[in-house]
Amino acid sequence: MIAAVLAELPALPLHTAGKYVAGAYVVLFALVLGYVAIMAVRQSRVERDLAELLEREQASAAAERESARQEASA
Amino acid sequence: MSPARRYFAGGSDTTRSSAGAVRYGAGLRTLSVATIAVMTIALALVFFWAPLEAEQGFLQKIFYVHVPLAITALCGFVLGGIFAIAYLRTRDSRWDMRSYVAIHMSLIFGVATLITGSIWAKGSWGHWWVWNEPTLVSFLIVFLLYATYQPLRFAIEDPERQSRYAAVFAITAGAFVPLNFIAVRASSAYLHPRVLGATSNLPWQMALTFLVSLLGIVLLFTTLCKYELTVKHTRMQLRALRRLAERREDVTAGVAPTSRPRSAAPGVHATAMSANPVHPASGPASAERARRPSS
Question: Which residue has the higher pLDDT, B24 or B75?
Fold first, then answer.
């Protein structure tokens, strides 16, 4: 299907200025991809920090529960 | 119950409103799909439908990416100024963050504009850069002017002053952008190829392709801004949450609270304030109040 569509499309005159046009479009997509990659790294850092914080909170809650139980038993 | 615990449980009205009122991620998926669709259509139109230009031939295809990028970047700078006005009027730090993100994204689009423009210049004129071309040089001046925005923010430690000074900068520089554009346009009407306005003589196929490309780039700008706002907002909420947890631990251990890390990113202080009414950088009295348990 894709091959049939591609066969129907007109040929691009890449020999004239193909490298410049390709360069310009590649720059745009490289910048966008680079940006998205940086954002993905930041997002994964947030995820890691959130997991760490949650772990701390759960540990703290468990300690509080334990001390409350000890007080009640005392 | 401690503020951090209330945050996790969703039991505090303050934290719930500060965390729930703003949802930067809403509609991000729809916007992303629309951006991809329009960009794909634009690329198909550029390469397979729009006619070849008589003088430049295939090289002119760069026009459909370079000019929309330049227009979007300049509009983004102006938008940053408008958001800064909204910040100064309302003192709502969300406007400050929007202004920051709009300018940040415009800088990235500005880099893309300069590089694609250089590539076009090399293919068309045989030089990567032409210093006697007013449009190129004026865009570079605007870009370099805005390149000082982030160092300016980073140089100011007090978050309130940082936001205020950055807003003043954004408004002043935002007013400079259209003035610069008009001045260059008036002085060099015959030097740089014009796209919009009375001198435009694009065939309708080229004009339509250009408009679809412009729409695609504008959608890309909006999507990336929304993406960045979402990530920043999440990080700010997380930082505020961490600070609350650390403060609670400090209070339990009887230690003075730690100071806020220095950052050029806006709005961190605002979230911290909304999560806890005591501002971390508002003097020893408030620091003393901050040491007390808030629940």
Answer: B75
Token digits of residue B33: 């799909």
Report if residue B131 sits inside a domain: yes
C-alpha triplet B216, B218, B220: angle, nearest 5°: 70
Tell me which residue range forms the domain holding A27. 14-73
**Same-domain pairing of B185 and B213:** yes
Nearest to B207 by CA among B68, B37, B11: B68
CB spacing of A17 vs B58 below 8 angstroms: yes
Regarding whether B138 and B256 lie in a shared domain, the answer is no
Residue A35, domain member (yes or no) = yes
Residues B81 and B154 in one domain: yes
Tens digit of pLDDT for each residue in B130-160? 888 888 888 999 999 999 998 999 898 888 8
For the entire predicted model, the pTM comes to 0.76
CA distance to partner chain B, nearest, from residue A6 (Å): 11
Q: Is A55 exposed, middle or buried (0-12, 13-18, 19+ CB in 10 A)?
A: exposed
Four-point Cα dihedral B114, B120, B124, B126, nearest 10: 60
Task: Calculate Rg over the CA atoms of chain A.
Answer: 29
Chain B residues with beta carbon closer than 8 angstroms to that of A13: 52, 57-58
| B202-255 confidence digits (pLDDT tens) | 888 899 999 999 999 999 999 999 999 988 888 888 888 888 888 877 777 666
